[in-house]
Structures are given as structure tokens and as C-alpha cells.
Amino acid sequence: MQRICVYCGSGLGARKEYTKGARLLGKELIKNEIQLVYGGSSTGLMGEISNEVLKNGGKVIGVIPKMLLLNEPPNKNLTELIQVENMSERKEKMSDLSDGFIALPGGLGTYEELFDTISWARLKIHKKPIGLLNIEHFFDPLLDMLENSCREGFISELSLKLLLVSNNAHELINNMKTYKPY
């Protein structure tokens, strides 16, 4: 695994543990010699993880739509910044560049990217591991909703198994490295 795409908030969230978790994931990427692919922003958790990887000598590729350049200034120290036309092109480019995906706490954009990635895996568009770093149980309500959708017959058991979930960055990356697609 050479590159992992991380989806996360352009804000820091309400708890300092989210920032700590993003930094710990950045350190874990460095320990495993994995490059970071992400949305390119210098703000929020996106900025925290990119700065952590960069300050520890790692490589970071940012992918940002031109329309976001004013609202979410890119990290100026990136190894590479790729500008794309729109959000759809951003997701496709980040997917093409990555060997796996991890979602950290975030908002609508994070959820949208995560659900597209899960849907693509279910449709066998890719066979890459998808992880949730469940910092402070942030994703518990989402996991409950997905399990309910499965019980109610809208999501298969196989779809649920596409998500690797942990509250520990080291464990999550190890699980991703040994992931076998269904």
C-alpha cells in the first residue's frame, strides 16, 4: 500500500480528540511509508493531517476543485497540488491515485465521498480497502444506521463488510494492509 486517500472535515470539529486523531493517523502513515492523498485544504482536520505528514518527511498529494480555492486555501507545502474542475472529478482523481481510503470525522463532503467510495466498491469499480477511524465514537450513529438498513433489507451483509472500522490508526492501517476484497 503506497497511498491512502483520507476524507475528513475542513473544520476541526467540537472535540480536540479529532485533531489528535488526525495527527496520529498522519504519524501512522509515515511509519508505514504511505503517502497521503486528500482534498488539498490547509484548514481543519485536512490541514492537520497534511501538516503532520509533511513535517515528518512524508509526501502529500492534494486534489482540489478550482471553485474551492477561495474558501479552502490549499496547503502551500504540498508535494503536489492537483487542481480539477469539480467535485466529481476530485473524487475520481483521488480514487485513481490511492490504494485505499480512510474517513475521519467530517461533514457532508466527507459523508458524500465515503458513500461514493463504498458504492463503487459494492459495484466492483474498485477493490480497495475502506476504513473508518472512529475517533471518540464519531461514526457510531452512522454504523447504527447502516446496520438498521441491513436489517430492513436495503443493504446487504456484504456491503457492511466493505468497511473496516477501528478507533486506533495503527490497527486500522494493519487491517487495510491485509484486506481481501469480497
TrEMBL record:
Its EC number is 3.2.2.n1. Pfam families: Lysine_decarbox (PF03641). It is an enzyme of class 3 (hydrolase). Keywords: Cytokinin biosynthesis, Hydrolase. InterPro entries: LOG, LOG_fam. This is Cytokinin riboside 5'-monophosphate phosphoribohydrolase. NCBIfam families: Rossman fold protein, TIGR00730 family. Belongs to the LOG family. The lineage of its organism: Bacteria, Bacillati, Bacillota, Clostridia, Eubacteriales. SUPFAM superfamilies: MCP/YpsA-like (SSF102405).
